[in-house]
Amino acid sequence: MPRNPVSYHLCPRCGRAVPAQTQEVFCVNDGTRLLTACPGCAQPIRSPYSQFCPRCGQAYAAPLPRPQPGL
What's this model's pTM, rounded to 2 decimal places? Predict the structure, then answer.
């Protein structure tokens, strides 16, 4: 009998991952809504260490803005 792979919810801001079974909706570190699947193709997040979707290559975290010189 095949096992169901574990899925994770991932904070796109800080990268915190929690097992989906916890049913957390928001990151306890920064209040950001957790990703429940890839925003590009809806593939479940299967690793708490993933930064990119293995199916479509979409980044899970939004890139941080680059600092402007002189600011």
Answer: 0.77
Tell me how crowded residue 35 is: count the other CB atoms within 10 A of its CB: 16
Cα distance between residue 7 and residue 9, in whole Å: 7
Residue with token string 């429940």: 36
| Radius of gyration of the chain, Cα coordinates, nearest whole angstrom | 14
Q: How many residues does the chain have?
A: 71
CA angle 55, 56, 57 (to 5 degrees): 105
Q: Given this model, what pLDDT does residue 66 score?
A: 62
More confident residue, 3 or 41: 41
